[in-house]
Structure formats: C-alpha cells, structure tokens
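Shapes recur. Our protein:

. . .
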Amino acid sequence: MNLAGFQTVCDEGWRRVNGTPGYLAEREARFLMLAAARAPAEGAIVEIGSFKGRSTVGLAYVAQRYGLGDVVAIDPHTSPSTTDPDLGTQRSSYDEFQENLRRAGVADAVECRRAFSHEVARTWTRPIRLLWIDGDHVYEAVKQDLALFRPYLAPGAIVAMHDVLGTWPGPLRVFVEDVLGSDDFGPAGCFKSIGWAQYRPADGRAWRFRWRRRRLAAAARQLIPVAQAGWVTTGVARWRQKFWWRLLPHGAVDPARWAAQVAIK
C-alpha cells in the first residue's frame, strides 16, 4: 500500500465517516482506517459494536479500496443497553445503521452479524487482521470480547479498543491487564481514547516491546481509580490525574511512522 495514496483514501474515508452519526473522533477514525489498511496480517476485519455505523463506514471504505474483504460488523442493535447511547423511543439502531452504510456507499463491503459477540464467537473460525472492540463497555463484557476472539488473531494483527481513555473504566482495565500485561503483544499505544496493540506472540516478550508496554501500563493503571470515580477529581487528585494523563500518547497518528513500528521484519 502506497502511503502517499493512502492519505487521499483516508481523507475521503473521513468525509464519509463525518457524515455518519456516532461518537468516533476524527483522529480515531483516521487511526482505524490506517490500522485496517496497514496491519501486516491476513484475515478479517472484525468490529464488535457498530451502533449507527460511524466506525463501520471508515473500516468498510478502506476495505473496499484495498480489497481486504468484508468488514464483519457484530452488534445486536438492541435498546436499551447498559453502556450504549440512549435511543430514546427507538427499539433498535439497525435500520439507521443499514441506511447509513447505504448512504456512504459501503453496504456491499459489510457482513452484518445482528447478534451478541458471544453468539458469533461460538462458530467463528477465521483469522483476524484487525479486531476493533467497541461494544458493551462493562469490564466483564470487554474482557469477554477480547478473550473470545483473541485465539483467532493472526500474527501481526492489530487489536484496537475504544474508550480506553474515555468514560468507562472497563476498557481501560482490560487494556492494562490483558493487553499491556501480556507478552503476546508487541508495539502498543494510544490515540485519543483508543488503546491499541499488535499481536506478536513470537517476539512480544522482547525487551523493546515489553518496556514500552510496561511504561504505558504504569501510567494508565493510575487512571483506573479515576475512571471508576467518573473522572471527577479535585485538589491533589486532580493534579495526579493530569500528571499520569500527560505520560500517555495522545497525538495525531503519523502513518509512515506507525506503519514502520508495526512492520514484521
């Protein structure tokens, strides 16, 4: 994939994402599109938690442009749900999800699984190149999503989790404990609220990877109590929160640098 050409693809992908309702920021959308396009692994792009299709549109547009196969979008599209946005009088986001995909021109690039992730996992057998976890944000649910699909990650695959540095403590805990704390993962980092890591079971224990994961985990772990308290702090606690927050990366993604970071040599 030509990185110069990717910028044009990414700009057009963002235009379509930006026209779709949802809660994915521009930096996050651009990172997801880059991860989908440049993950050095063969397999499916799997999204757990689609809501109205904002991230689905970006992933599917990139998949279309680079011949990566359909995006598998897993979501029961039910309401109400503990951690999903309120749909008001609507009972489901499914019809709007489908309409948004059609309007963005990516409906043919999405394999919609209208089910809970644990139901899809029962019969799942395919390798995965990108696993995007943005479903139920309760700790046990996030932990289960990762555990159920982790066995299918292809070497070099990317795991990305939404709201690791967001409202809910569940994704943050799972990212710290089960991703950063595992030698099955190599390069890792954050972009805005997304936490990501590359599945590298062959060399994830190498010191260059382990050191970075531990450094990230040390800062992120300090924010778990803050997230559990609803990110409301005052006085010294507020100062500590800002200190640890600043030790985590938040800058915009540099496509060339990121691609070099995850390249398998």
Observations:
- The mean pLDDT is 92.
- The beta strands are 44-48, 71-74, 110-113, 128-133, 153-161, 185-191, 194-199.
- Residues 155 and 200 are 6 Å apart (CA to CA).
- The first helix runs from residue 3 to 18.
